[in-house]
Design a protein that fits this description.
The structure is a homodimer of 460-residue chains. Chain A has 460 residues and is α/β, with parallel strands linked by helices. In chain A, 41% of the residues lie in helices and 15% in strands.
């Protein structure tokens, strides 16, 4: 039954806002394998994480509660930019000529320009509660560093960002916005840490890497009593915080009497996709929903579609805990031709588990198709999307065109995780024909996988 | 009576959205003086404008109707980003410790990043209706050029933007976003027009100016049958389109049972301020409201507070009609130290008339105070404001602090006309102590005013 009585944008009243996050992990049919200590290979203990995270976040990381209350101090800041609108893409539907009804949840209306702020806020809040006055982190493109800077400024905390050197130099606006929120931004490798000084001595011309920046941020946090470290994706507590996206979306869909048939999100570390689908997947596992869930990744970094399900490190140096996940190998770096984000070698544990158990689908798309979809969306829906988020748009358009062929009036929901206002160099390259496809080669895939860690008795 | 039961953000249901613009002009106690032909000094006729504007917009420019229906084809695109949220600034109030209740209407949630799209859409729509397939315009900072590019892309029209050369070179991202919406962007002066070629010959090293860019855009439009010209501020029809801001704000305030005591907006050409206040002023003039209306301008370009009320041209070359307005003289250029927009020498006729009749107030603020207010707002309200819009924030904070002194629980409403994502060079300068005040000097004021046009029998 077609329904065109839905307003363009659906919001929620104050009393309808979610007051808890949704944790999918205790509801999975098969449990996540335990994270392992990077050196002893023993199951990870709470104490192993206490030099860089507060107890409250470690408890969330290991939580088996389905609902985790959102503290009022977090809700106060969420209310500045939440609920994010659920938008019916009437003009895009009309342009495509599809009978499908397309909805998107837009997470870009905040100074970080993306969903990242959803986790930066509680991470800053819980650390402040624990008496921590200073947070460190790394940032590549800058979305996560900006998000943490915004959250720290609100709670009156110091924020120190190790920004990959090439980004620091090429993205002065991203640096400037973090500084506007009073963050201290170091070009990484920096002289501020031992690991940074060592690398600068050996490779003074290095353009830096996320791996180096993580090492610097962790060293800084571990070496000071008043300082902790914050990570913007991948970990369970980050995924839990991002469930605010799905919690709101479910309430908004219910409000207009819609049920999604297809739920789509882009996948880098997996946090926005996991956050969107979490409560819907809960319904599905309880037999109350029958939807398809599709994670979309770049063909240049196809973690789910071409990686393996194995224990791997989160960083290059092998200092992080080992987690069971889909991975291309911790040393993997996507082709330099790849323009957008979504460059992480691994994937959050919960998305990996769902994919391994065939409860979600995944697809990899080429970046010329992604930018083509982004431009269609920009014109038809009046929003310039981030290249990352445009992976989800690309797949939503594919599904809507399939509905056009079959005549099916499916309800498609996707997460538009951020805006593209800081990605205009990439758009400029696309406009001038300088964006080319760079699917992962078999050789590079084999090389990445050849370096997976060997764990006696577990992984050979 | 304090009331803290208001949600952070107030929206409108589909059926509550305004379906007409509000035209304040027929309700003014004293009429606007007639615009004059630039050469004959006779009252301007419809025919004088027909080579660059469609009849429908000329009719709006001269309309004496209070309500002008918004065509469904315009409403369709408005619905993508409207209603804009009316936000209660709870965190800012708490930070200031004021008993005032502060509300702001945020116009930045669209790809132009500002209120400019509110007029770009109907201008593109009416031109398309009139059989025009190509629009030209000028842009300085780029907000207006982006807005027109977005609107033209949606309606399938060609958009040609003459972008002041120094901006074209210093703001490649603004150029890129216009090109992403398929606009053709020329660095002005260009080889594309006679006036451009002439200036390039005489001054090959010129950095360009808005005056030159206007001349190029008008020449291009006047010389082609299929092409018209579009202007982003100042004119009556632009002000009418911007009344969507005030129409929505009035419905949103009514919905939560609030009545504004003080209404604030920044003033460049006056379109966002006029748009916000129009329906409220209608209520005030009918004796149903008792509010203060405050226009805020930069001390570097104090058109209302230090200019004179006289007939003046809109451009440097004296090719536009003469309009009665507050002006610093058409040759006026603000100090190079001035960082933000709001650089126009004149002011919309309706704002000028209201100010002359003492129905609104005006104040000029220094830019270091503006950036200080911007940073407070950015941290407390989680939105990076445009420097232009921050003039309104600055005054709203001043008024809220006055309420703190007196204990008055006033209701303050201001327009946050746009975001600052494309203004990070200015923020970076502020962060590094490179922003200084540049109030207009008496000498520069006298020089600007000495060149006002002489009109026999009207202005000596």
């Amino acid at each position: 039954m077609p329904r065109n009585d839905v307003p363009n944008k659906v919001y929620l009243e104050a009393q309808e806002l979610p007051t808890s996050w949704y944790n999918l992990i205790p509801n999975l049919p098969n449990p996540i394998d335990p994270p392992l200590h990077p050196v002893t290979f023993e199951p990870l203990r709470i104490e192993d994480l206490m030099s860089i995270f507060p107890k409250s976040l470690i408890a969330q990381e290991m939580s088996r509660d389905t609902y985790i209350p959102i503290p009022e101090g977090v809700q106060e800041m969420y209310r500045m930019f939440r609920p994010s609108p659920l938008t019916r893409a009437y003009c895009l539907e009309k342009y495509l000529g599809t009978p499908a009804r397309i909805y998107y949840k837009y997470e870009g209306n905040n100074p970080s320009g993306s969903h990242k702020l959803n986790s930066a806020i509680p991470q800053a809040y819980y650390n402040k509660e624990a008496g921590i006055r200073r947070l460190t982190t790394e940032t590549g493109a800058g979305q996560w560093g900006t998000a943490l800077a915004v959250a720290c400024a609100f709670y009156g905390m110091e924020c120190v960002v190790y920004m990959v050197r090439c980004s620091y130099e090429q993205k002065p606006y991203r640096r400037a916005i973090m500084q506007t929120y009073d963050a201290t931004v170091f070009s990484s490798p920096s002289n501020n840490t031992e690991v940074g000084r060592k690398i600068l001595e050996q490779m003074p011309e290095t353009s830096g890497s996320l791996g180096i920046a993580i090492s610097e941020a962790v060293e800084d946090a571990a070496s000071r009593e008043d300082t902790n470290y914050a990570l913007g994706s991948v970990l369970n507590h980050v995924v839990i915080h991002q469930s605010i996206i799905g919690q709101e979306a479910m309430a908004q869909m219910a409000k207009i009497g819609e049920t999604p048939d297809i739920i789509i999100g882009c996948c880098g570390g997996g946090s926005n996709f996991a956050g969107l689908i979490a409560p819907f997947m809960g319904e599905q596992l309880a037999g109350r929903l029958n939807a398809r869930f599709i994670g979309v990744e770049p063909a240049a970094c196809p973690t789910l579609t071409r990686g393996v399900y194995a224990y791997d490190y989160g960083d290059v140096a092998g200092m992080t805990p080992l987690m069971k996940q889909y991975t291309l190998g911790a040393n993997f770096i996507p082709s330099a031709i790849h323009a957008g984000g979504l460059r992480y070698h691994g994937m959050s544990q919960v998305i990996s588990r769902l994919y391994h158990d065939k409860l979600i689908e995944a697809t990899a798309v080429n970046q010329t198709d992604v930018f083509k979809a982004a431009k269609i969306f920009a014109v038809q829906e009046g929003l310039l999307p981030a290249p990352e988020s445009s992976h989800a748009i690309c797949q939503a358009i594919n599904e809507a065109l399939r509905c056009k062929e079959t005549g099916e009036e499916k309800v498609i929901l996707f997460c538009l995780s951020g805006h593209g206002n800081f990605d205009l160099t990439s758009y400029d390259n696309y406009n001038h024909g300088r964006i080319h496809d760079a699917p992962l080669s078999d050789e590079d895939l084999a090389l990445g996988l050849s370096r997976l860690p060997k764990i006696p008795g577990i992984q050979g």
